[in-house]
Every structure is written in C-alpha cells, then in structure tokens.
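Kindly draft a polypeptide, keeping tokens residue-aligned:

***
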Amino acid sequence: MKVTLVRHGSTAMNEESVIIGHLGTPLSAKGRREAAAVGKRLTEERFDAIVSSDLPRAKETAEIIRGCLRHAPPLAFHKELREIDYGELAGRKKDDMKGQYPRYHQDVSFKNPGGESFDELAQRAVSFVKRLEKKHKHVLIITHAGCIRALVSFLRREALRDNLNMRISHTAIAEGELTEGRPKGAEFVQE
C-alpha cells in the first residue's frame, strides 16, 4: 500500500507555540491557504481513500484537500490518527515545559501528565495504518506532527527516539510504502 501523509495546516495556537495535543482548534486563514495549496498539488492523484484525524484542524485540512481532488474518494475520520495526548500540558507554551519537564520531547517513554507517551502514540498509529493495508492500495492520511514522526519512523525502520524532534512543517507531505505489514521506506516530498 502506498501512503501519502500530510500534516494539517496552521492554527493560531501553532503560531503562538502553544501545545495543542487533543485540543479542538480550527485552522487559521493561513492554514486554510496551506491546505488549499496541498490540494492543488495533489489534484491529479488517485487515492482509494482519505483518512484523517478527527480533530478539527485535521478534519478541516482533509475537507479542503478533498475538495481540490479531481478524483475525490471517500473521507473518514479516526481518533487513532490524533496527535499525541499531552494531557495537562495542552494549552501551555512549549518553552515553559522544557524546564519543568526535562523529558518532554526528549524521551519516547515519557508519559505526559494525564496523557500518553510517544511510544503509545506510535503503537496506535502504526497499528491503524497496518489495518488500512487490508482494504486499500493508496491512502491519503491527514494527521499531526507527532503521528507523522511515528509513521515515518516506522516506514523507514528507524527508531522513533531518533526522530522525536524531526521538523515537520504545516502541510508537509511524506510518501511511503507498506507491503504485507512490512515497511518499505518513506521520504518527504514537500517539507
């Protein structure tokens, strides 16, 4: 199965460097423009399905992109593609967390207070994508930076701990492949 991963467009909270996690925040005007640009880039692609995180910023991005596709397949929303659950840290400034929680974004096993670890995020995201392979040949996945780090690490057969701080811009696009549950690589085609 071919996988095309896209990070959602910008939000006001992203632009203010606030930890969002599972908070429901919509795209900013800039984020809607970014999503439309990705849609135009992908307009001729033929996807079997589009699956998206069920959080508002990803849903809106997916709907905008789907509206630009010449061959628009079904669109479904799934909680398995959500960003990492930052729990009590959601809504706080990223820079404030580094001093208070030294393992924040440094250790894949660090469980965010009231939330989850990057290891847990990776388990749910990879498991979900493996299930998609049973039904599809080419899937467009709209999700979040943490989820993309986990999926790209899996597809490249790299340790997530080595990619924990991988820079993933809004509406970055990565393409990868999975055959019979085995990863075959991934690369960013738009950063």
